[in-house]
Amino acid sequence: MAMKLRASMSGDTADIKCLMNHPMETGMRKDASSGKVVPAHYISNVTCTVGGKTVVDAQWGGGISKNPYLALKVKGAKSGDSVTVSWVDNMGEKESVSAKIA
Amino acid sequence: MDRRQVLKGAGSAGAVSVAIAAGLLKPTDVFAVDVKVFSTSDTGAVMAAVGGSGAEANAGVVVGAPDIAENGAVVPVDVTSNVAGTTSIAIVAEKNTLPLIAEFNFSNGAVAYVATRIKMGTTSNVVAVAKAGGKAYRGHKEVKVTIGGCGG
Predict the structure, then answer these.
(1) I need a labelling partner for A72 at 20 to 30 A (CA). Which of A17, A33, A97, B46 fits?
(2) Which of A20, A49, A53, A59 is best to mutate for the B interface (most B CBs within 10 A)?
(3) What number is the ipTM of this complex?
(4) Which phi-psi region, left, alpha or beta, contains residue B74 (left: φ > 0; alpha: ψ -120 to 50)?
(5) What pLDDT digit, counting tens, does each position of B1-31 carry?
(6) How many structural domains are present in chain A?
């Protein structure tokens, strides 16, 4: 299942909501059956752009919950603007999703 | 280099400059929090790294979180900074094994607001450090955790 992104205007502010699919392993958790430590695997950087301009650039650790949820607000955006949220994880995997502001 | 050495080195400026020289860190990354801070278990060092050590408590930095979280693996948290000119917000779960959760940098009209879900190992303060105009301001909210969510 791919990432989900919704963006809508609320007054002069765009509400951006995003759901990502990721295990977000801290590297501290032990597998219940094998007893082995599950290697760290988490999203380390998230970027959100509106109309091609970066609005939020975030660095994450493994402390964000599995299948991360992120909500942001951006002033000065308008209906029809393109929003993109992209992430990169500590293993170099990446994904991004775009949507238009409703 | 094993993991312990990396952790020990994380607190020293020397390790950072070596990392830059080795090309491990782009110069632009240095303005944000050092990625190694995410694997540091020393809350004091984390607060220092995000500029929160000497930050003044400010009622304008509002942390929204439940009073009691039944499941520490998924604790909804939102942070709003009403301090004018806020450029970044860091979120720290004080008593987590790895306290630094995330840092968000805002530009081009982004409101100093973020909502997400975090993991909490035990009852602790969720601290937000907002930076504005070269100063840091902090707000916090205590969350009681019934079942910890940091694995193991």
Answers:
(1) B46
(2) A59
(3) 0.96
(4) beta
(5) 455 554 444 444 444 445 445 545 444 444 5
(6) 1
